[in-house]
Amino acid sequence: MAKNRRRNDKEKIKKYKLGKKIKRKSPLVGFLRIATIIFLILFLVLIIYHFRSTKLIKKVIVAVSGSEKTDLNDVIAEAAGNLGVDEKNFKLINKQDHIYIEIGINPSDLDLVLANSIITGKIVEAGGKQLYAKEADNGRYQLLQFSHPDNKLPFLIKIYYGNYVASLPEVFLIIDDFGSYDNSLLDEFCELDKDVTFAILPNEPYYKEVMNKANASGHDILIHMPMEPIDIKNNDPGRDAILVEYNDKKVKSLVREYIKRLPLAVGANNHMGSLATSRVDIMEPVLQVLKENNLIFIDSYTSANSVVAQVAEKEKMKIWERDIFLDDQKLSDELMDKKIAKLIDISTRSNQIFVIGHCHFKSKLEFIRKFIARAKDSGFRFSAISTLTNT
């Protein structure tokens, strides 16, 4: 038993010595250890370098793209301007512990919640961090606080409903067909608001007298250019009218003659012309001569096939279109209600509305007077055609 135990101990010692000897002399094991350590070190270095480089790149991008807006002043001012905030409703005060900004928005344009969302989005996009936001004074204003890494002081922003004068829709009222008479009815028309425009036919006997009286009473004048309608046999535009059979030279000659007869005119509109205004070859020379003389054009829009807008775009000239024909064969309170309702409906889509009436009878004058009064009571304001420009 003792001999066997001693023999086993000697074999263990021999194996142990042999193992140590093998490990100590093996080059492969040592190489693998060293390679593994080097690989891990290199991998760690690459990770550190990657994240550090990413941060540096981001930092450079922010510095370059927002270098002019790092203090948020420009960002906030620009956001307020985009919301339609004017100088009277924007205030910035540098205080000891924060930068205080007041932004008064137009309540007719948007509400506080939407304004808050837009302004907050712009600030966060520029690198700002929102610290808190709360509503105060029963929803009359909102307070926002932001910080920015490039600013020591936080920003305290108050968004409230500012004081704005309501922008009333403009009505441009044109009275067509003047020139056939010079009497007391004309004198009464001249007593209308000065913002009402007189459209005078240059082929009627009293065109010059009407022009002078309208000018003396402070009314703008349009050349009411006679133009060929679709049914010319039953709708005569009168002598010296622009017909579709005329060439470019003839059309230009007629327009120049109209301007010569009515030199005080600020522009023109068409009399009839449902056929002529649908023809590019007719409207091109018409608008070209008007543009040469710095005169505007109002399309009476007697046809849905009008090409006036298309030609004006080509000629790089701004034109306007009639929205409402005011009078009818039967003038009544019911008709007036319909016209006012239409005026209100159009005002939801456009801030400029063009209305055309006519001067034939005293009844039409009275209808126009009532329309002006009703429109003003409904919040509309009347403007002169001369306030428009064709550029």
Structure overview:
The structure is a single chain. The chain is an alpha/beta fold. It has 2 domains: 73-161, Beta Polymerase, domain 2 (2-Layer Sandwich), CATH 3.30.460.10; 170-387, Alpha-Beta Barrel (TIM Barrel). Helix content is 43%, strand content 21%. The protein has 11 helices and 14 strands. It has helices at residues 2-25, 27-65, 73-82, 112-125, 184-189, 207-216, 248-261, 280-292, 308-314, 333-347, 362-377, and strands at 90-94, 99-105, 129-136, 141-148, 151-161, 170-178, 197-200, 221-227, 267-272, 296-299, 320-321, 324-325, 352-358, 381-382. Strands 6, 7, 8, 9, 10, 11, 12, 13 and 14 form a 9-stranded parallel sheet that branches. It has a 5-stranded mixed sheet with strand order 1-2-5-4-3, covered by helices on one side. The radius of gyration is 41 Å and the shape is elongated.
Summarize the structure.
This protein has 391 residues and is of the alpha/beta class. The chain has helices at 2-25, 27-65, 73-82, 112-125, 184-189, 207-216, 248-261, 280-292, 308-314, 333-347, 362-377, and strands at 90-94, 99-105, 129-136, 141-148, 151-161, 170-178, 197-200, 221-227, 267-272, 296-299, 320-321, 324-325, 352-358, 381-382.
